[in-house]
Design goal:
Helix content: 25-40%
Structural class: alpha+beta
Number of helices: 8
Radius of gyration: 18 Å
Shape: globular
CATH architecture: 4-Layer Sandwich
Order of helices and strands: EEEHHEEEEHHEEHHHEH
């Protein structure tokens, strides 16, 4: 049986930017999804987001066969998390090293970086690894829940009770990140696991969406549209209609079908590599 996770993604430059520094990838067979929002002078943001995404994707494909990621500092061991979630976290660290090294070796790309959110489908749950303010949400039975916490100055102010959510939405300091990929030699990666059942939607997005649309507006799109393709199109369209001040990237996955017919993660991996061998 084919993978019951239907994944659709779209990125758009927006109304005010000349370049699109967002980048996304997904591997349907694995159920691995990534969204990155780059930053830096010239075209460095584009370089950082693309490099981090492609490196993480390829390293994960290698590491699920070996169980090892070649990083000096691994994510902390956690018996409460699936080992594959930890591998995903280490692959994000590996991508961080790649971006950092690329920035150090090229003056034009010095200090480039990117936000990063990756999700991996593990049958009845989603492993999430993220750095920065790109987000992951789950929509179920009319409720949209933010499953990641931004690594930003504004979020720290909110956590301390120094500002209200309303003030946060209007703040001129929304772009100040406290953590991102590629800025330092190592990075702390937040790893969580989110349960998922048939009918659930998973949304990964850059802040070009969440700056333009409120939580309630995004929720309404999911309530009114069961087709992931149309949800993605409408969210990007509305973000631009509201001003499109930034690049906007939206990746939506919908869990379809019954668990009875799902292929195991191991079989999905085998299928992916078999397909790759047949196309070579």
């Amino acid at each position: 049986m084919k993978c019951p996770l239907k994944i659709v993604g779209k990125t758009d430059v927006g109304k005010n930017r000349k370049n699109n520094e967002d980048f996304f990838m997904f591997e349907p067979n694995l159920g691995l999804m990534i969204v990155a929002d780059g930053m830096g002078g010239h075209n460095s943001g584009e370089v950082a987001s693309r490099l981090a995404t492609t490196i993480c994707m390829e390293q994960f494909k290698k590491s699920i066969r070996t169980g090892h990621v070649p990083v000096f500092f691994h994510v902390p061991k956690n018996p409460d998390l699936d080992p594959r979630s930890l591998i995903l976290g280490d692959c994000v660290k590996f991508a961080n090293s790649a971006v950092y090294e690329a920035s150090q070796g090229n003056e034009e790309h010095k200090n480039m970086g990117t936000t990063f959110v990756a999700a991996l489908w593990l049958d009845n749950k989603i492993a999430v690894a993220h750095v920065g303010d790109s987000r992951l949400y789950r929509f179920r039975s009319g409720d949209l829940v933010q499953c990641t916490i931004d690594h930003s100055f504004i979020q720290e102010q909110l956590n301390k009770g120094l500002i209200t959510p309303e003030d946060a939405e209007k703040s001129d300091m929304q772009n100040l990140l406290t953590r991102s990929i590629g800025i330092e030699e190592d990075v702390k990666v937040d790893i969580t696991e989110v349960d998922i059942i048939p009918g659930d939607f998973i949304l990964l997005c850059s802040d070009g969406l969440t700056k333009m649309l409120s939580h309630e507006e995004i929720t309404d799109f999911f309530k009114s549209e069961p087709d992931p393709d149309k949800v993605v199109e409408k969210l990007v369209e509305q973000a631009n209609a509201k001003g499109g001040r930034d690049n906007v990237t939206v990746l939506v996955a919908k869990m379809e079908g019954s668990p009875i017919g799902w292929r195991s993660f191991k079989n999905r991996v085998k299928s992916m590599f078999k397909k790759k061998a047949e196309t070579n």
